Amino acid sequence: MSIRNPKQALYEQFATVAKALGHPLRLEMIEHLAQGARSVEALAAKLGQPIANISQHLQALRRAGIVSAERDGKFVHYSLADDSVLSAFASVRGVAERQLAEVDRIVRGYFDARDDMRPVTRDELRAMMRDGLVTLIDVRPADEFALGHVPGAINVPLREVKAWSAGTDASREVIAYCRGPWCVMSFEAVAALRSLGHSARRLEDGMPEWKAAGLPVEVVTCVASL
User: Fold this and answer.
1) pLDDT score of 39
2) CATH for 6-85 (1.10.540.10, 1.10.10.10, 3.30.360.10, 3.30.565.10)
């Protein structure tokens, strides 16, 4: 088949991907799928959305090649097509962070109010863990922790942070991470720990970025498939 204007045809395909990314709920779905494969039902429960609505958005992402699907019995599990999806997400986020005043206002008004310290880099964390200098906590829900976590991390879901902190040494620094660089849970965990007298900081990003960097990941193999 001859293509009259191949450049325009390519740009139309590129626009298909950009259009699929251009919805806040779809971006949040990508963040959740970056933690591990999910069924429509599980993803809908995570996001508090009707199954039909999530299914419709998943189909749009699938048509654009952003997610893939695999059938497991009566369920269909969706996952990100590959790590390039995370790169695209990070690029969109980076442009918004640099160029949009509203992003800066949100960061200053909410995130910096909870933690304005420089986060810990992946290399710094690895060195600290190797030397036994910190306690690393994963504040995501248990099912996400089971799908993959940083080796040596302790799963302390956000709602359990205060209770967990009561039995730990307040002089030992705690590093928290969750789904990504702007995941609210790690900010809230750090703020809660500091209010209780602990030294606490965040990892610079989250589990998906750790995995995409080719760093080791542990999974919990003794739990039922989610």
Assistant:
1) 95
2) 1.10.10.10
